């Protein structure tokens, strides 16, 4: 027997119980219940909430042009300590200069033996922005000078200075070879090699190597092994009769920089090869220098920069 509903739709009798169950029985499907939209009356207005809209279906609110500009202009936070872990300070020579003519007082010490540089091939390890390298090349009439630094930005600054000097010089390209500033170039790189085995392919290239106020930074970043390797590489890069001019920092200056990074702190605590041992190591059979002499100590500068400048000779 068929029944009629209020809409005059014929409903088969065998489905009547199912229809009644759907109208009266509570839902067993929790997910279905949770996804039912709830209607709330707020005053005279209706507010529809969907408490379980999938994240993928939610629309991201568009940001205003002003907000987008503000976000675009936010600069990433830079740890200043980590930016200068190699002693690669900008305006470093401002602390070393005695007068407004950009005269580094160490030039007075080097100038006591100008014959060491005149007509020679030089390498300046840790040249920073190249001011001192350029002064040496110009003042002592070197044959050539290569400045090396681990900081690419400083090398770019140094090479820019060379290019400006070239444009302002009256030297023709035909006669420029071997003349200042055409005999100076700057190279980006780490003097400490990735592996000691690479020392086997190092060949003599220079008459003089300058390593001025750099040993502390090699030491803090590459520890005892890295500094010892650097000393051996310096020896191997020198021609017979060549000179290493070394200005090491005292160990008590290391402590002020040990907190630059966690890695530097660990290296500092592991150091056993102290600056007062450098000379004996350089003169040992492991390296090979034949003799050492004191070149001088810069005068008229801050106490922290009055460091002895030493000459190590290769035979």
TrEMBL record:
Bin3-type SAM domain location: 104-315
Compositional bias of kind Basic and acidic residues: 13-26
Biased composition (Polar residues): 1-10
GO biological process: methylation; snRNA modification
Enzyme Commission code: 2.1.1.-
GO MF terms, alphabetically ordered: O-methyltransferase activity; RNA methyltransferase activity; snRNA binding
Pfam families in the record: Bin3 (PF06859)
InterPro entries: Bin3-like, Bin3_C, BIN3_SAM-bd_dom, SAM-dependent_MTases_sf
Region (Disordered): 1-32
Protein family per UniProt: Belongs to the methyltransferase superfamily.
Protein's name in the database: RNA methyltransferase
Species assigned in the record: Drosophila navojoa (Fruit fly)
